[in-house]
Design goal:
379 residues; alpha/beta; Rossmann fold; Dihydrodipicolinate Reductase, domain 2; 2 domains; 11 helices; 35% helix; globular; binds nicotinamide-adenine-dinucleotide
């Protein structure tokens, strides 16, 4: 979409909202009137790096239930460029210092935190305290303790919380979930999931800096493998054991390069995962009693591709995953529909991440997990 048509598009939204001005300050709850349900919710992106610029902002242009209303940036030079490109009024532009003033801005309903991992907790908590609903990028934080603090802040403020797990709104993922749930090919026996890419650029990037990332490939891509092992079995693991591989330690000085892990699920189901910053792999394979299903590629922005042992192609029209994800969360806020990636899901994955790091530290020891149904969303 050109800059001009983007501006026209956003202006139309603003006009639509003027008619709904009386709704400002109304609680976001189920059973709202039709007009309130039709109103697009305003999202402010915090952190205008590559994911915000390349995926989230473009995804919001065509979203049905939300739009890009504001920005929060530590780089003054980006303000003018984003204001022009997305028709964002100056009043909706914040920096990291004055961010808390967003509490007084009724045009912003949702704050989406897209900063380096170690900054998620601080900004999610500040957003909740400002009375805004929160989307927190993955991984949710750098520790389970931080996940708890985010969840508590959102509960205390009475705002909704979601993790930026775009795959949970993706039709390919949902087809895998359906095959598992409906036992189309019988029970699941084995799942294998790879999420890895070669990340050998600037050695000073924050992803390779433990203080900012909280870990390497496991924190960045490994959470996708954990997720797909779980939706590929429909249950949480009951234990995990893991191994770390380092082939160029002089480059991956501070963070993990490659990790494999084995998960045990209830009823003897076995899961395997591989994640790396030094290999390209992007596949989910689910082995059922009477067949299999595969997505390859499976964790990227799409178009994805899949097939089953019956020779059937899994195929859907391509849409921005980020648009669908943000629309799903806006619908959840407006109508009480399912939150496909609640905070508990992000916390559960961080419990598994910490167990994987513990297992590696203890020479591959099996670490038991007691997760029950935590973070399992019925869809
Ligand atoms: P990026 O490096 O492109 O952008 C990071 C942003 O944070 C920049 O705007 C930078 O200016 C800002 N920042 C503020 N303080 C910083 C500091 N001390 N060091 C470095 N940057 C700082 O990163 P990104 O790829 O946009 O990732 C941001 C978040 O989004 C991460 O949590 C990442 O895991 C997540 N992400 C998710 C997906 C997904 O598919 N869901 C994809 C990419 C990134």
């Amino acid at each position: 979409m050109s800059n001009i048509s983007r501006r026209t598009f956003n202006r139309k939204l603003t006009q639509g909202m003027a008619g709904s001005a009386l709704l400002a300050g109304m609680p976001w709850a189920c059973g709202m009137g039709e007009e309130a349900q039709e109103r697009k919710l305003g999202i402010a992106l915090v952190g205008l790096g590559s994911y915000s610029a390349g995926q989230l902002a473009p995804g919001l242009v065509n979203a049905k239930h939300c739009y890009l209303a504001g920005i929060v940036t530590g780089t003054p030079a980006k303000e003018k460029q984003w204001m022009e490109e997305y028709d964002i009024p100056k009043d909706n532009v914040y920096n990291y210092e004055n961010f808390d003033k967003i509490a007084n801005n009724d045009a912003i309903d949702i704050v989406y935190v897209v900063l380096p991992n170690s900054m998620h907790a601080e900004f999610c908590i500040r957003a909740a305290k400002a009375g805004k609903h929160v989307i927190c990028e993955k991984p949710m934080a750098v520790s389970v303790l931080e996940c708890d603090a985010i969840i508590e802040a959102c509960n205390a403020a009475g705002v909704k919380l979601s993790v930026g797990y775009r795959m949970q709104s993706d039709p390919y993922t949902n087809e895998i979930k359906r095959l598992v749930r409906e036992k189309t090919f019988g029970d699941v026996h084995y799942v294998s999931s790879d999420a890895a890419y070669i990340s050998r650029g600037n050695p000073d990037q924050w992803r390779l800096n433990y203080a900012l990332s909280g870990g390497g490939a496991l924190m960045n891509m490994g959470v996708y493998s954990i997720q797909s092992n779980i939706y590929g079995t429909g249950t949480n693991p009951i234990s995990v054991s893991a191994q770390e591989f380092s082939t160029i330690p002089e480059y991956f000085k501070d963070t993990d390069e490659s990790i494999t892990a084995q998960m045990q699920f209830p009823n003897g189901v076995v899961g395997h995962m591989f994640t790396s910053h030094n290999a390209n792999a992007n596949r989910l394979f689910v082995n059922f009693r009477r067949g299999w299903a595969e997505l390859n590629p499976c964790h990227s922005y799409g178009p994805l591709a899949g097939r089953t042992s019956e020779g059937k192609e899994i195929k859907y029209p391509h849409q921005s995953q980020q648009m669908v994800q943000m629309d799903d969360f806006a619908k959840h806020i407006k109508t009480g529909s399912t939150n496909f990636a609640p905070g508990e899901m992000g916390k559960r994955d961080m419990i598994i991440v910490e167990a994987i790091y513990q297992s590696i530290k203890e020479g591959g020891k099996t670490v038991p997990l007691d997760l029950g149904n935590m973070g399992i969303v019925k869809s």
